[in-house]
User: Which sequence fits this backbone?
């Protein structure tokens, strides 16, 4: 099996708590880069990154344009920008919102599929939107791994429901299992454990 | 060894189609998008394929080669950057508080707004300069690759429905007047005071292929470099360096940085979080 090198996560309504849960399970030495699109108000400040950073063994930061992707790096889409993935780095855009959202989860997952193919995993978490469904389908179509939060464990189930409708073969996992599954999918870097 | 998927074959073909399309555009129309960041470029190309009712990038290439109006439409997709007046009020506040006092020391001020798109940034800056009583001695050069966008910028009319948001931005950026005093309502448009654009030189300029044309005290280029790949970013930063007066100021978008650039050491931060830098000499 091709090891996963990039995990792309989308979350909306209820996403802060869900993201904390998922990220808290990722250990130092986690062998993939993580990129996150969480819907939020335009003009929001950098507080979300520091809230998540405090809950997580890995460093979480708001993405800068062309910032390098490397194992253990966790980058969050800045408010009012789309976050896209290029091979080995992220890029930003201020193109029109998609599904009324910027960042858009579809844009992130779609670009992750194009840049990482089988080496990408996409995760759709809680939300009251259809954003992410098309992007997750793209990840599955390109041979990547598709994961959807079990709608029954989601604060709002519309987004996981839409993702499952678009990708019925996706892995459905309770929120508290997603982080552990990601650790299984991703090779842990040698010698990084302390 | 993993079994090669059909998907990777698709990827290779798509990459080939993109390369051929960009080569064709370059040779036929002299626009060079080959150094653009791939992920956004790919999105925008596919957007045009779908909008034209086509199936493939090769189909788009055929239409572009045979119909120059299709190239105009693609140019619009590739070059019009969505923005707003006083986007990031903190940035505009920093311009007033940290940059304008430096500009005030010059008898005549030259500003370059590179990639001005439809002009929101021009009028934001003109308003702020007027309130600082600097506008009369400032010449703003507003350039964009897209002539149609420049024409809109020249007209200085923006959708009226956006004025509420722009007013909020203006006030949190430290605006001291009544924002509505700068425009008149014309149908569903807000038409800005033409005297704001009196000292503005509008010119078509391609950051990728055109050279330096003046020396500026302030260069504003926000959320344009994000569409460029790293190497092209470096070239454009070099162009900015060649176009700057001593101790010139460079203002980028909030999430753009010169930190990873070989030219980073030529600048010191004037306001690091707002991405405003000053040449060391």
Assistant:
């Amino acid at each position: 099996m091709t090891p996963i090198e990039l995990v792309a996560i989308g979350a909306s309504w209820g996403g802060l708590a869900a993201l904390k849960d998922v990220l808290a399970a990722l250990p130092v030495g986690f062998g993939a880069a993580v990129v996150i699109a969480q819907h939020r108000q335009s003009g929001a400040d950098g507080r979300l990154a520091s809230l998540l950073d405090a809950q997580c063994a890995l460093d979480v930061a708001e993405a800068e344009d062309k910032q390098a992707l490397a194992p253990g790096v966790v980058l969050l889409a800045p408010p009012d920008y789309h976050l896209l993935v290029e091979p080995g780095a992220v890029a930003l855009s201020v193109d029109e919102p998609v599904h009324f959202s910027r960042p858009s989860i579809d844009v992130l997952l779609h670009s992750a599929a194009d840049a990482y193919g089988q080496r990408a995993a996409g995760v759709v978490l809680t939300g009251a939107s259809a954003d992410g469904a098309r992007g997750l389908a793209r990840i599955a179509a390109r041979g990547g791994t598709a994961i959807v939060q079990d709608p029954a464990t989601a604060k709002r189930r519309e987004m996981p429901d839409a993702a499952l409708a678009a990708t019925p073969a996706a892995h459905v996992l309770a929120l508290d299992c997603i982080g552990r599954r990601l650790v299984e999918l991703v090779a842990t870097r040698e010698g990084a454990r302390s | 060894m993993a079994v090669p998927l059909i998907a990777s074959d698709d990827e290779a073909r798509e990459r080939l189609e993109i390369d051929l399309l960009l080569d064709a555009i370059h040779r036929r129309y002299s626009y060079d998008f080959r150094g653009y960041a791939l992920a956004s470029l790919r999105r925008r190309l596919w957007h045009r394929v779908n909008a034209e009712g086509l199936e493939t990038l090769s189909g788009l290439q055929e239409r572009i080669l045979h119909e120059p109006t299709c190239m105009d439409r693609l140019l619009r997709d590739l070059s019009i950057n969505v923005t707003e007046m006083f986007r990031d009020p903190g940035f505009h506040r920093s311009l007033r508080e940290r940059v304008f006092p430096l500009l005030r020391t010059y008898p005549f001020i030259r500003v370059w707004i590179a990639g001005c798109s439809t002009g929101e940034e021009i009028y934001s800056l003109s308003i702020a300069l007027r309130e600082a009583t600097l506008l009369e001695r400032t010449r703003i050069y507003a350039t964009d690759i897209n002539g149609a966008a420049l024409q809109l910028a020249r007209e200085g009319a923006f959708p009226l429905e956006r004025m509420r948001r722009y007013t909020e931005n203006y006030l949190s950026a430290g605006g001291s007047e009544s924002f509505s005093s700068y425009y008149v309502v014309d149908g569903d448009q807000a038409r800005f005071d033409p005297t704001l654009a009196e000292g503005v030189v509008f010119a078509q300029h391609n950051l990728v292929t055109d050279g330096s044309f003046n020396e500026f005290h302030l260069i504003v280029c926000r959320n344009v470099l994000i569409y460029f790949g790293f190497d092209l970013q470096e070239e454009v930063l070099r162009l900015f360096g060649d176009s700057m007066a001593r101790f010139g100021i460079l203002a980028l978008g909030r999430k753009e940085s010169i930190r990873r650039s070989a030219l980073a050491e030529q600048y010191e931060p004037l306001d690091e979080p707002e991405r405003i830098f000053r040449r060391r000499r």
Remarks:
- The longest helix of chain B spans residues 6-29.
